[in-house]
Design goal:
CATH class: Alpha Beta
Strand content: 25-35%
Strand order of the largest sheet: 1-2-5-3-4
Oligomer: single chain
Structural class: alpha+beta
Order of helices and strands: HEEHEHEE
Distance between the termini: 19 Å
Number of strands: 5
Radius of gyration: 15 Å
CATH superfamily: RutC-like
């Protein structure tokens, strides 16, 4: 499974793995699992995708933000594994946090932006369990944040 080739087929490139914005590390490998800290969405120009999602017309914007979080997750996985994605056995879980108002109930649709990218990249191994949670605010005013747990080969 060549994830780099799949990225190219989808017209996507991995961003550089973002440095932590507070007192934590981007990834921890333990017990055959790689735990990736929550990642924020940066557009292709490197700008943080900000703002709350409050209406049906915000779903597409949120899905794109979730997709950009997923790209950053893959970048963090690659960085944590020394520049290769070969040890990824399965995406186990994604946790999606969506900055949204109390009337917005499409968090699962927004989180699909990340979920669908994982399946597009990793195939069957990209299918995962997931949480999609609405929150009033996220770090730096981000629209979406996604974290992950990844099973590794040869751990």
């Amino acid at each position: 499974m060549d994830i780099e080739a799949r990225l190219g087929q989808l017209g996507l490139t991995l961003p550089q793995a973002a440095a932590p914005v507070a007192a934590y590390v981007p990834a921890v490998e333990a017990g055959g699992l790689l735990h990736i800290s929550g990642q924020l969405p940066f557009d292709e120009a490197g700008q943080l995708m900000r703002g709350r999602l409050d209406g049906a017309d915000d779903v597409a914007r949120g899905q794109e933000a979730a997709k950009r979080c997923a790209l950053m997750l893959v970048a963090q996985i690659k960085a944590a594994l020394g520049g290769s994605l070969d040890r990824v056995e399965r995406i186990v879980k994604l946790g999606a946090f969506i900055a949204s108002g109390p009337e917005f109930t499409d968090q699962p649709k927004v989180a699909n932006g990340a979920s669908e990218l994982m399946v597009a990249l990793f195939g069957e191994a990209g299918k995962h369990v997931r949480s999609a949670v609405g929150v009033p605010v996220l770090p730096l005013g981000a629209a979406v944040e996604v974290d992950a747990i990844v099973a590794l080969r040869g751990a």
